[in-house]
Amino acid sequence: MIDKWIFNEVVPPEMADQPLRFLLHQYWLIPKHLIFSLRHNQRVLVNGQYLPVNFPVHTGDRIQMTFLPQDFGQPYPEVLVDSAATIEVLYEDRNLIVINKRRGDKTHANQPGEVGATMNHLAAYLQVEDIPPYMIHRLDQETSGAIVFAKNPAVVPILVANIAKKVIQRTYLAWVSGTNLESIGKVNLPIGLDPDDKRKRKVNGPHAVNAVTHYQVIREEKGFSLLSIQLETGRTHQIRVHMAAINHPIVGDPLYNPNDQYEYLLLHSWKLGLVMPFTNRLQTVIAPIPSHFLRFEQFY
């Protein structure tokens, strides 16, 4: 298992003459507790020398950061290994990996000793590098498509922060029942628990929190609409709850559209607009349209 993580980065022009602390925290989104560890143990170097974090850096300066296991609460997630045969890699580098999650697979196991989840399969794929996967976000079990995992603990808070701030854009595809939606629409309805079913969520249910979903109609066919959807917030089952609340439930949704005849939930994580850790370079990743979507288009 890797016993330290070393990053060698270069100060970009937009950070010229800014304090090192500002570069680390505001631009690279490294949490303050990690900056404290780097500073306290002099594990952040500028052009090979330790520099107090209040000192300015300059364009082209070389920044080296060394993170150790004790810097993290869970440096090595315990993920049981399953077969890697199902893993379809959409993008990969030294810091992260985006895979095409299969419909029907959980994102992670829920019980001790359980395997068969996406993380178990990914753990097998990454085993050759002797590293575990680090979870960044989840997809519902019946949702297919692009999902990102970290490959080291240092970039986990960066990726999580970028998702929370909507710097990472996630676009979904969904077939919904009904037509005549606004061509571009917004659903702004708080989502809480469903007191009648622990599996579900409900608009204005107990402990409701703000939830906003944006959608655009791509096309309409024979009583159904294909939508491109983006989340402004990330609540459990948000897209499914919101679409059902405006009387356009997702096709094949067993919880929120139980009378629908199609056997698969037609919700797909289609595009990820990733802002890469440290470089802030934009990387767009697209998950191919899955076969159960294509079968539905033939079905109707």
UniProtKB/TrEMBL annotation:
Catalytic reaction equation(s): a uridine in RNA = a pseudouridine in RNA
Span of the signal peptide: none
Pfam families: PseudoU_synth_2
Domain of life: Bacteria
GO biological process, one term: enzyme-directed rRNA pseudouridine synthesis
Residue stretches making up the Pseudouridine synthase RsuA/RluA-like domain: 95-245
One MF term in the entry's GO annotations: catalytic activity, acting on RNA
Membership in a protein family: Belongs to the pseudouridine synthase RluA family.
Protein name from the UniProt record: RNA pseudouridylate synthase
Annotated source species: Lentilactobacillus diolivorans DSM 14421
Lineage summary: Bacteria, Bacillati, Bacillota, Bacilli, Lactobacillales
